[in-house]
Design goal:
alpha/beta, 754 residues, 23 helices, nine-stranded mixed sheet, seven-stranded mixed sheet
């Protein structure tokens, strides 16, 4: 036994190693990448939105409201953006970033570019957008820098690369830190804002810490040092970050561009022109009374009017500034209209079952805030992933081998749930992304591989046992086969037969309590006399499956008495078991109880297999029902159950009691089943009294008279202190007393298991 366990463990671990190598290879070539990205999205959604109240970032979008309010059609003249820059500075914005590329001249207003340039130069706090353009030609890939037009570059303003980083599924999860071009680095818009916020120059010194994965930036003196953690891709660290999204679209405060144009000098359409921005402008033409009247907070209005009445204009300015949503903010300007095709898929796209694309300008905000907060997502090194794959595979293999498939399956499920929970916890609380799909696939594959191995191993042993008994056949049947060699042809024929199935109760428990050698002895002691009895009644032992016996009566040799012979064989077996049980208990310490099922009907009989290797057997509903009846004994605590078709054929040969109207698994029509009690005339007085009370009880049960039925079943139990079927029906009656069956109930019981 110990030698077998060692062998199973060694082979199981070998299977685990092979599976680990295969999954590691698939991981390395990126097979799991697509699914893994989706699990990353689920982790974002599980974590949920994060607080951004500490952020200085605001979003200014060209949206539907802007289209509705502005008099010109998009693309807007450049003087619109000049007004926007001037107004943002008037309301106290500290930095302006355009996610709009001004790489072509203004075709609507020839003076527009100069007007915008003058506004940008005057403000001195604008970051413009450009890109590295790539064109595929016959000669290969052609690259060039597409930067803002010269008149804007002459203002001395900085600019950054827009460059998108979309994954294969079209989602935006990564963000560019910089992009090498020829002999220089072109920083992204987000990096430029990060440098500004951290007090670094527009082109800081930089280095890369290959051990920790940080890009290190500093000023010329080296006194101001800031770090950005690079994303660890399949080829190592990249000059990108994983965006730690703070939530879905509109997580950051978002304003329509029209509201930032809406001052006394800029005319929107009549119904939209409210001069809203005059409330917060430093040099507003409107009096204090007007500005205070437009404050949204009524308490602040009262306080401001009180201060104004006292002539304290400094306090009024403080109150207005406290309500100013733009003061000391970083304004990111872009478009949000879907028609302009700058909305992105992000991990929060389907958050809360609401599908929302995110404006491209807001993806910059999430990336910038990730860099400012240092809330970088760190990817576990792929070698660590592979190590975990091997460990999980080994653990699963050991669980299956020692706990066996059923308990091992439960433990494997717990292990898988633990892996998933751990991965989600690491992401939520530590911002660590560990690859999840390969780990779950490893656990499932290792479990499946080892279960298949154990199954094949056990089947091999069972086949060896079955091979020892396949020659058991009565002389009469053997002679019939000698006289009818055509019975071994591969073609089948319709025949009437009775099928017998038996199975040892709790055989798994018995087998686990005995050594292999002792179990073999017990099986021989049990199977040999059972087989002898079946052969005495001309039964054909169809097959052995471990402790289970399938025997056919009426095939391959025709026998008009097949039904009663099957019943008598079953009764004789139970009588033999009464004697055998004591011997086995004494010698081996286990109790042998056997459930049997008998059914008759038309079957398809013949040799199944190939011309070289075949077995004579039967198939059909009648066969399946006989098997179901054997298993159905468990529902009633009985050991001999026969079907209605068998009872019709043997009513003059046997004693039975009706058990139930049974709907076996996979069927819809109820079948009346009976407990086989004795041969005709051999029923004891005790059995007769129990049957009498039970039949009365079951009729009352079918009539829905639950309390009266219970009394009869209790009388049946009182005869000898035990009657398992009566106990079953008492419990059913109690259940139906509180929860009666439907009006269409005709007394049937539906089995949900085989």
């Amino acid at each position: 036994m110990r030698k077998n366990i060692v062998k199973q463990t060694a082979l199981g671990l070998g299977i685990a190693v092979v599976i680990s190598i295969l999954i590691s290879f698939l991981l390395l070539i990126g097979v799991f990448r697509g699914l893994e990205l989706k699990t990353l999205d689920y982790r974002f959604q599980w974590r949920g939105p994060q607080d951004v109240s500490h952020s200085d970032l605001i979003i200014i979008t060209i949206d539907d409201q802007t289209f509705k309010s502005c008099r010109d059609r998009y693309p807007f003249p450049r003087d619109y953006y000049a007004t926007l820059v001037e107004n943002l500075n008037e309301v106290g914005v500290k930095l302006i970033m355009f996610d709009i590329q001004f790489t072509e001249p203004d075709f609507k207003n020839p003076l527009g570019d100069q007007i915008l340039a003058d506004a940008i130069k005057k403000s001195g706090n604008v970051i413009l957008a450009g890109k590295i353009a790539r064109i595929f030609t016959r000669g290969g890939l052609y690259e060039y820098v597409d930067e803002p037009i010269p008149v804007l570059m002459e203002t001395g303003s900085d600019w950054g690369v827009v460059g998108e980083m979309q994954d294969s599924d079209g989602f935006m999860r990564r963000y560019l830190i910089f992009e090498p071009y020829q002999d220089r680095l072109l920083y992204s818009l987000g990096s430029k804002v990060f440098f500004f916020e951290k007090g670094l120059p527009i082109s800081p010194k930089w280095s890369f810490d290959g051990h920790d994965g940080y890009f290190v930036f500093s000023d010329s003196s080296g006194g101001n040092v800031q770090k950005i953690f690079g994303h660890r891709g399949s080829g190592g660290f990249e000059q990108t970050i994983l965006i730690n999204y703070y939530g879905p679209a509109s997580t950051f405060p978002t304003y329509s561009m029209s509201s930032l144009l809406d001052d006394a000098d800029f005319d929107l359409r009549d119904e939209e022109d409210t001069d809203y921005l005059e409330i917060f402008k430093k040099n507003s033409i409107y009096p204090y009374e007007f500005k205070v009247a437009l404050l949204a907070d009524s308490a602040k209005q009262v306080e401001a009017f009180t201060a104004l009445a006292l002539g304290d204009t400094e306090r009024v300015d403080e109150i207005i500034d406290s309500e100013n949503p733009f003061k000391d903010k970083v304004a990111l300007i872009g478009v949000s209209l879907e028609e302009l095709h700058d909305n992105k898929y992000t991990p929060f796209y389907n958050y809360g079952d609401v599908q929302r694309l995110m404006p491209g300008v807001e993806t910059h905000a999430h990336a910038i805030q990730t860099m400012i907060d240092g809330s970088f997502i760190k990817v576990v090194p792929i070698l660590v992933d592979i190590l975990i794959i091997f460990i999980l595979s080994m653990i699963t293999a050991v669980i299956v081998i020692f706990a066996r498939p059923v308990i091992g399956g439960a433990v494997t499920v717990i292990l898988s749930v633990g892996v998933i929970t751990g991965a989600f916890w690491l992401f939520t609380h530590q911002s660590i992304w560990i690859y999840l799909i390969p780990l779950v696939v490893t656990v499932v594959s290792s479990y499946g591989g080892n279960v298949i191995y154990l199954f094949l191993s056990e089947q091999k042993e069972k086949k060896k046992i079955r091979g020892m008994f396949q020659t058991y056949m009565s002389p009469k049947v053997l002679k019939y086969l000698e006289d009818h060699p055509d019975a071994f042809s591969l073609s089948g024929e319709k025949r009437e037969a009775t099928m017998f199935f038996s199975d040892v109760q709790a055989f798994t428990t018995i087998s686990e309590s005995l050594s292999a050698e002792e179990l073999s002895i017990v099986l021989n002691k049990y199977l040999s006399p059972m087989t002898d009895i079946l052969m005495q009644y001309d039964g054909y032992v169809d097959k052995y499956e471990g402790d289970a016996i399938m025997c056919d009566f009426g095939v391959p040799m025709e026998d008009p008495d097949h039904a009663w012979k099957a019943c008598y064989a079953a009764l004789d077996q139970q009588k033999k078991l009464d004697v055998l049980r004591g011997e086995i208990k004494k010698d081996h310490g286990v109790d042998i109880f056997v459930r049997m099922g008998v059914n008759s009907g038309i079957v398809s009989a013949g040799n199944m297999g190939s011309a070289q290797r075949f077995q004579y057997t039967v198939m059909g509903d009648a066969v399946n029902q006989a098997s179901r009846f054997e298993g159905a004994n468990k529902q009633y605590g009985t050991y001999l159950m026969i079907g209605e078709e068998t009872y019709k054929r043997v009513v003059d040969y046997i004693e039975v009691r009706i058990l139930d109207k049974l709907v076996v698994k996979g069927k819809l029509i109820p079948i009346t089943v009976y407990e086989l009690l004795a041969k005709k005339g051999e029923l004891t007085k005790e059995q007769s009294r129990i049957r009498e009370y039970f039949i009365k009880g079951i009729k009352l049960y079918w009539d829905r008279k639950w309390k009266e039925a219970i009394k009869q079943f209790e009388l049946a139990i009182s005869v000898n202190g035990q009657d398992p079927p009566s106990k079953v029906f008492i419990e059913r009656c109690k259940i139906y007393t509180d929860n009666p069956p439907g009006d269409d109930w005709q007394g049937e019981f539906v089995m949900t298991t085989k």
